[in-house]
């Protein structure tokens, strides 16, 4: 039997709406932590709210409140997915700049007395739910704010610091639905070429942060003969599953969380979710622990692999805009870029195709496109990788950086880039 002060929201929609309507700020878990049933209910009954603000990163589904259709509900994004991107560009949702590891602190400042909503696995015999694929900023609020959960039998039971006791839950509803899957991105020839430059610089015993896309997938595919790799990453993907099941990941050389795979959220295919279920090797932790540069720096051989859309001669990487148009946000790129910079033997790789639009536009530029946003600064950049080579910029002068970047630019643009470098006085 549930304690009397806890509402078991397993009967009517009116009970759910009654609870939600008591709050002006609702924090929503990201990716598959998103409680689809509860959010649909908000979208279908906007009249239940007087002045509601919904805070979220990386939404999975489009909703009318995201597109600003209700004047009494405002959507605030901290990392644009495709639906919030459309809304932001139309001026109907807010985008708050942030470092991912600072999200819990930022939400505490912006959200007085919030309610947190998330998906969760079924309660165990000890009275605990698991937030499953999610830790992110949500897990930080366990015990600090009330939760309403969508309990879903498809959510894997995971370990770490994303377990929440029934006594900390204001209400829940049982609603089962399959988790959304992120298909593995195909690996093209350019991805493979870039990956080879990165993989040959990853040593046995390194700890990795890897993301999504063809390049990370290609890098992972080249590490099957490595030994004793560790994982400390914001996002857990199918690539980690491949390495773990092949015995490549042991984590025995890690200084923090030895022998554990550490992440703050997971997004992949069903085989990843099955692998995570009740797997004590994997720990899902709050993002202010996983992405804290001070924690990342404790791993001597930390390797971070990220991407950008363009880079200039200074080494500034614009990773959240495309040709000056906002596309996503900072995410964890600067968290891990800073962390590896302070790690004893840290290496930070930022990868990009040398050209765009059928090789008509160079992604290496004298100056960034107008209105571009710098994600990784010139002071934090380390290795830049294209299909034409790798350039280590850390510790190099502007002149040396310029030459190194031109050397890995697409050949058809090298003469033009050299000409521009001489005009700028960046060529000796």
TrEMBL record:
Superkingdom of source: Bacteria
Provide the Acetyl-CoA hydrolase/transferase N-terminal domain boundaries.
16-177
What is the name attached to this protein's record? Acetyl-CoA hydrolase/transferase family protein
Keywords (A to Z) from UniProt: Hydrolase, Transferase
Report domain Acetyl-CoA hydrolase/transferase C-terminal positions.
268-421
Similarity field: Belongs to the acetyl-CoA hydrolase/transferase family.
Q: Which PANTHER family match?
A: ACETYL-COA HYDROLASE (PTHR21432:SF20), ACETYL-COA HYDROLASE-RELATED (PTHR21432)
InterPro entries xref list: AcetylCoA_hyd_C, AcetylCoA_hyd_C_sf, ActCoA_hydro, ActCoA_hydro_N, NagB/RpiA_transferase-like
A molecular function (GO) held by this record is: hydrolase activity
């Amino acid at each position: 039997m549930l304690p009397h002060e806890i509402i078991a929201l397993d009967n009517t929609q009116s009970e759910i709406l009654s609870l939600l309507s008591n709050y002006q700020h609702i924090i929503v878990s990201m990716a598959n932590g998103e409680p689809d049933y509860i959010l649909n209910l908000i979208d279908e009954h906007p009249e239940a709210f007087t002045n509601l603000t919904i805070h979220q990163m990386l939404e999975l589904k489009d909703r009318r409140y995201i597109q600003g259709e209700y004047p009494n509900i405002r959507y605030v994004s901290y990392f644009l997915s495709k639906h919030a991107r459309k809304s932001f560009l139309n001026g109907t949702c807010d985008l708050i700049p942030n470092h991912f590891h600072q999200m819990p602190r930022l939400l505490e400042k912006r959200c007085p007395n919030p309610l947190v909503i998330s998906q969760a696995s079924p309660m165990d015999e000890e009275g605990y739910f698991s937030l499953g694929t999610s830790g992110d900023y949500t897990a930080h609020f366990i015990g600090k704010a009330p939760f309403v959960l969508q309990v879903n039998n498809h959510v894997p039971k995971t370990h770490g610091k994303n377990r929440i006791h029934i006594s900390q839950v204001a209400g829940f509803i049982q609603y089962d639905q399959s988790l959304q899957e992120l298909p593995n991105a195909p690996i093209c020839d350019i991805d493979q070429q870039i990956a080879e430059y990165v993989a040959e610089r990853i040593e046995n015993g390194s700890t990795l942060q890897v993301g999504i896309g063809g390049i990370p997938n290609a890098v992972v595919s080249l590490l099957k003969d490595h030994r004793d790799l560790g994982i400390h990453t914001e996002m857990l993907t199918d690539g980690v599953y491949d390495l773990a099941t092949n015995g490549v990941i042991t984590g025995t050389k890690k200084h923090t969380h030895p022998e554990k795979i550490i992440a703050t959220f997971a997004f992949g295919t069903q085989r990843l979710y099955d692998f995570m279920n009740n797997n004590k090797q994997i720990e899902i932790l709050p993002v202010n622990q996983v992405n804290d540069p001070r924690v990342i720096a404790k791993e001597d051989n930390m390797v971070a692999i990220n991407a950008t859309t363009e880079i200039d001669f200074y080494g500034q990487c614009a990773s959240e805009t495309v040709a000056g148009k906002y596309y996503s946000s900072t995410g964890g790129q600067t968290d891990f870029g800073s962390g590896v910079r302070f790690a004893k033997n840290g290496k930070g790789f930022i990868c990009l195709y040398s050209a765009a639009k059928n090789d008509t536009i160079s992604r290496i530029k004298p100056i960034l496109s107008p209105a571009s946003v710098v994600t990784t600064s010139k002071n934090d950049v380390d290795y830049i990788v294209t299909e034409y080579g790798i350039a280590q910029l850390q510790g190099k002068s502007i002149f040396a950086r310029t030459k190194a970047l031109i050397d890995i630019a697409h050949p058809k643009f090298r003469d033009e880039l050299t000409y521009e470098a001489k005009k700028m006085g960046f060529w000796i």
